[in-house]
Design goal:
There is one protein chain. The chain is built from six helices and seven strands, in the order αββααβββααβαβ. 22% of the residues are buried. It is globular. The protein has a seven-stranded mixed β-sheet with strand order 2-3-4-5-6-1-7, sandwiched between helices. By secondary structure, the protein is an alpha+beta fold. Helix 2 packs across helix 3.
């Protein structure tokens, strides 16, 4: 068997360049990612009587349940609503992971349409022991400030309370809860409190300081 061809010995310049690259890589690895402190508030209702509905805004506004579990549509809503307030966790999920969450018994997505255009959504997730979480709620930026959010939250919370009527295999709702944080819109907490949600937990978390992704890079001037 013949001897393998040996590569030429590295020159001094090549050795210096390789050492420089290794040093740069080590420095980047050692540099901690930027982080930010985020306050997370958890709120709840423990009776349907807790809900204080907002007035229904004027105009052509409809709230419709998205009954077909469609990851494409759900991901659009998530990125369009949360794109300027750093909703990023679900953007890394696979198509099948999206489908699995949407097909959970008791999972519901209610979409607000203003003049036929999706304006925002509220997503419910039925959990154990009669608990329903408002998993996501919000409006696309173009529709904020038009009194849609209060009505959508009111409607979605009411659907959380009567969820078992549409899912007979789920127990009657005994508690509806959600969490919001200091990175959400400036009126989010006030909306929750006005609808009758009560604060039951506050904590501080340290999270990566990520850019606002938008529905695509560069949206909203980010």
């Amino acid at each position: 068997m013949s001897n393998p061809v040996q590569p030429p010995a590295p020159t001094a310049d090549a050795t210096t360049a390789a050492a420089s690259e290794a040093t740069t890589a080590a420095t980047v690895e050692a540099t901690p990612a930027a982080t930010v402190e985020v306050t997370v508030w958890s709120l709840e209702q423990t009776s349907p009587a807790d809900l204080r509905p907002a007035a229904v805004p004027e105009g052509d506004l409809r709230i419709v349940r998205s009954e077909v579990p469609l990851p494409e549509f759900s991901r659009f809503l998530y990125s369009a609503v949360g794109g300027d307030i750093r909703w990023t966790d679900r953007l890394r999920m696979t198509y099948e992971q999206w489908r699995e969450l949407l097909e959970r018994p008791g999972a519901e997505t209610w979409v607000a349409y203003a003049n036929g255009t999706p304006a925002g959504y509220i997503q419910l997730d039925a959990q154990d022991d009669g608990v329903v979480e408002i998993l996501y709620f919000g409006l696309i930026p173009a529709f904020r400030g038009r009194r849609i959010g209060g009505h959508l939250l009111s409607y979605g919370a009411a659907r959380a309370w009567d969820l078992a009527e549409r899912w007979p295999q789920r127990p009657r709702t005994e508690r509806v809860w959600l969490h919001t944080c200091s990175q959400d819109g400036p009126h989010a907490m006030d909306n929750y409190l006005r609808r009758g949600f009560r604060l039951f937990d506050t904590k501080i978390e340290v999270e990566p300081d990520v850019a606002t992704p938008g529905p695509w890079p560069g949206a909203y001037g980010a």
